[in-house]
Amino acid sequence: MTLAAAELMEFAHNIFSDERLRHWSFFSFAAPGREEALPADRTAPARTASRTCPLRILLVEDHKDTLRSLKLLLTRLGHQVLSAENMTEALRISEAEEFDLLLSDIGLPDGSGLDLIRHIRRTREVNAIAVSGYGMDEDIRRSQEAGFFEHLTKPISLDRLQEVIERIEARSH
Fold it and tell me: How far apart are CA 114 and CA 148, in angstroms?
């Protein structure tokens, strides 16, 4: 599931949860599906909570809707999420709070995720995942050189994000 699909689902849930709108609002949503149906003896896999231990995640994203959606999804996967909309706020949180994983957008209004991870790493070791709209080889190389474990290109797949979190967790133990 992509982040955009998750945001649409959350929006629809919020609309249908509003008692004033429930009786007269109708929405249609179509998404590309698989060409082949699942065999009768198989059911589609259900989204489950993270298979890893719950983590404290510092989520840094300047786009408010994306921040809200990612925070909701990560919380539903069982993680505790601290959030910041810019580098200044993220640095304040990183100095005051303990966290296991940094999940940061690269493009921030008052700096970059690359600067953020470098600054945090001066005082502590932290696992980190970069998120960016840019995914060229050079962008990925810069993220890794700055200290990010993985560079995910937007729109990110929740399955891919969960897989990367699980690899980081497995590497840490």
Answer: 8
pLDDT of 31-79, one tens digit each? 555 444 434 443 333 444 545 589 999 999 999 999 999 999 999 999 9
Pairing assessment for the beta strands 80-84 and 107-108 based on DSSP bridges: unpaired
- 79: Cβ contacts below 8 Å, ≥ 6 apart: 50, 54, 55, 56, 57
| Residue 73 DSSP SS3 | helix
Q: Give the pair of three-digit tokens for residue 164.
A: 């990367």
Helix spans in the chain (H):
3-17, 64-76, 87-96, 113-121, 137-146, 158-172
Give the DSSP letter of residue 98. -
Cβ neighbours of residue 127 under 8 Å, at least 6 residues apart? 100, 101, 102, 149, 168, 172
Q: Put residue 147 in one of left, alpha, beta given phi > 0 → left and psi -120 to 50 → alpha.
A: left
The answer to whether residues 124 and 99 touch, using CB atoms and an 8 Å cutoff, is no
Instruction: Please say whether the beta carbons of 106 and 130 come within 8 A.
Output: yes
Residue 50 phi, psi (nearest 5): -55, 140
pLDDT given at position 171: 84
Q: Which amino acid is at 51?
A: R
